[in-house]
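User: Structure please.
Assistant: Input sequence and predicted structure:
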Amino acid sequence: MNNRYVSNDPPDYIQRGEEIDLVHILKVLFYSKVWIAATTLLFIVCGIIIANTLTPIYKSDALIQVEKNPSLGILNKLSPVLPDGAGVSSESEVSLIKSRLVIGKTVRDLGLDIVTTEKTYPVANGVLQRLFGHQPAKITIAYLSLPEAYINQPLKLDMVQSGDFVLYVGESIVEGKVGVPVHTDDVDFLIDSAQLTENTSFIIIKRNEYSVIEEIKERLSIDTKSGGNGMLHLSMTGPEPVIISKILDNIAHNYLAQDVARKSEEASKSLAFLNKQLLQIKSNLIEAESKLNEFRKNNESVDLSLEAKFILDNVVAIDTQLNELTFKEAEISKLYKRTHPAYKALSEKKAILIAEKEKLNQRISAMPSTQQEILSMTRDVQMGNDIYLVLLNKQHELNISKASTLGNVRIIDRAVTQLKPVKPKKLLIVILSAMLGFLFSSGIILVRNMLIKGIRQPAELEMRDIPVYAVVPLAPELTKRRRCRAIPTYQSDELLANSAPTSLAIEALRGLRTSLHFAMLKAGNNILMISGTSPGVGKSFVCSNLAVLMAQAGTRVLLIDCDLRRGYLHRIFSKTESRAGLADFLTEGGNIESVIQKTEYSGVDFIGRGRMVTHPAELIMTDNFAELIRACSTLYDVVIVDTPPILSVTDAAIIGRYASTSLMVVRFEQNSIKEVEAGLRRFEQNDVAIQGTIFNGVEKRAAESYTYGDYSYQD
């Protein structure tokens, strides 16, 4: 079998380079620019609606400084070898601000665990409030105490009249009045104020405090300013600008208050310790002075030598320093381990002082016993007196510090809410909506373009050695779009050649008429068969308009509707289906002229399909059909035969044997190359030669450019 119409080569447009493919895509998009613009505009409108209905989110911020300041210990002036305080740890301060100690107090202070909403449609109410400024009813609850079983449970509150209300708590009903505290076995609460009308209902929820704290922590951001200067930038977001400003201010003040309280508590503990020590040291000092006076009285005014006085002064000075180092060690042990350099330096200094004291004790041991005893007593008195004076001074200092405790925290900037919401970004939403609309519509166009397997260019036929006699553009005048089908179909009782003789489709058929005139001069007879691969390709449109155009050129034309199943040419030429036609002649025989109809178009006669039959292929194979074709060929200059699709039924293969010129109509984007090749092979198997094709219904897109005025086309 001859495989003339089989080709494995890809279409020409697939063989193009990347640059041409990009141009092709841009042209496809440009052709659909109206649909893309409409879809993009729709997305923009949706974006505007969404941007204006989303809940606006505001941002409030405050600035806090945490100063570097050592604690109020008993001896806070450490020696030069020790650091001047522990410094400020930003991480620890951030953790302290976000602790339940600080935020929990804010929740209780502002009643954030109590949620009240008007019983209505919350989504619709929010949209109305944002679009038209509609203000919902509000109530302010000062405090609310409920049993644990009703935590996180919605409670209904109805306002009746004159500030009276009814609260439903489980099966209990609690009545009250705005501004008057309510106390029952289960409920303890107070409604401060109400902005509402009568017969308004509310839903009240007492939330779990821990969950409220966690929500605030998620919305609270703390930025530690660079440089280690102790600056903390607090920010918080939320839908209500006044509320978030109050929350942030309260958090800052609670953080400040706990710092002051901590410093005051430290001073109080140190002061209590000093008071206790002062009593003990004063008692010891009085006892030491009594012993010294008694000893001198018994030993008749024994005085110290100059050497003894020198040693005594040194011993007292060393003991004083050792006592100070002991206090310092008690403080530094809270900050550092024994292996820390500061702790080691203090220990080394203490060891040096102990060694010097040991040397002085050895010199004292060499003195007479009386001198040793009076030296020891005098030393005890002087040391006790020095320590007592030092602690007495510290007592005064701590009293002053406690009375004027400020803490290390300072609020630099109070909480201020920005006038404009930080979210949603309306312009960004609209821009993204426009981009999404453009990408969505473009994607739909490109995907649809990729899914279409039909032929788009006549070059796809010609590269497979399939001649194209004419490229007929889509005739919008006769196109009817079906809702569930995007392929246009010609169904009209009026000929385009008559109603729109200047249409580009008619101009293309005039070019076909010229080509057929010369082609049929060399043909064996004047029979022209026009078929197609599948239904709806427009073969009847081509046949009817071509017949009229040939008649206008002075040719006597007979048009035969051989589609005995779905033919509709009788609606154009005879306006009735009751008249005898081809099926009647093939069934009953008779006079040929009885089935030939004169039409309103000069030079065009017509044979309709006739009545409906159940076996059209068998009728066409009868001698009556052959007799009809031979007779008509002698009576007319051209006989045009409109046949059914070759891939649907075999009628066209039978009729094609009587025609010397046969053409096949191929529909733009409807018929694939495989369908066309299958149709041609079907004709070839039945010894029917197809001279060429008619590329019909071509849409003039930017992607495929044709010039119909001069009957030519180009890639």
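DSSP finds 21 helices and 24 strands in the chain.
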